[in-house]
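Quarterly update from the structural biology core.
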Amino acid sequence: MAWSTRFDEPIRVAGGGKLITLQHAADYIMKLPNELQQEPCWQTAVENLLNAAELGGGWLMFARIGMLRALNAKN
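Predicted structure, tokenized:
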């Protein structure tokens, strides 16, 4: 799979934005403060995004779930 791969369903983020592709999700994480990026929930999201981009298959679903969990985590 490529970083341009679309999620089955876009991920809504605060402010009305949407993460449509793996690249959008990765860019979103990279814009977070470094301390937040180091939180376990965001690290898990990153790992799943990398696996989805490199391996494809079911990893796309795990990447979406990881992003949703990180976005909804109480930090």
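The first strand starts at residue 6 and ends at 12.
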